[in-house]
Amino acid sequence: MTGLNTTLNTAGSALSAQQSAISVTSQNIANVDNPDYSLQTAECSASTPVESSGITYGTGVQVDGVNQNVNQQVENHLTREKSAQAALETQLLYMKTIEDIFDESTGTGLNAAMDSYWNAWEDLSNDPANPALQAMVYDQGTVLSQQFNAIDAQLEQMTHDLNREIRSDVQEVNAVTAEIAALNQEILAAEAAGNNANDLKDQRNALVDDLGEL
User: Are 164 and 177 within 8 A, CB to CB?
Assistant: First the structure.
């Protein structure tokens, strides 16, 4: 009998499908402020129809799965651009540090010290026997030497800071790649069991972005 039973079954499948769709919508709303979340959609299709007395009857709707609205090509491009941005920001940081080391705006930088040194030599060349001018060459040479030593010490400190940062980042890279590997296993296991792994994939995409920035 296809009458009442079919009608009840069709209504039941519709209620079940709509309940699933509402659950997905609730998940989307709950994660509206989550930057790592990808919008999800319940994909529905008509259930297998039945035939009775030569007539085909629909049996309602079924949920085939919950899909992520993700363009992987765009995601890959975004990861590359985040990586490039992080690299440029780090480069800018240390270029500014170098700029500060060679700061000439105060009039006491390396150029000023070299000018004073060569000017002292020029004055001495006009009167080589003058003790005061000889002392001035010595004093300006000392100032220039101190300037070189100060710059060298600052560059050495910057190199030390860079090496320390690299060592720290290498440890972080290892930790992130280990998390990605673990998530890959969880995703494979979930999908093999026919379960939804969308949230796990979002977590993985976020970690891939972090890795790109590192």
Answer: no
β-strand partners of 66: 42
Whether the CB-CB separation of 116 and 140 falls below 8 Å is answered with yes
pLDDT digit string, tens, across residues 149-203: 999 999 999 999 999 999 999 999 999 999 999 999 999 999 999 888 999 999 9
Rg (CA), the chain: 35
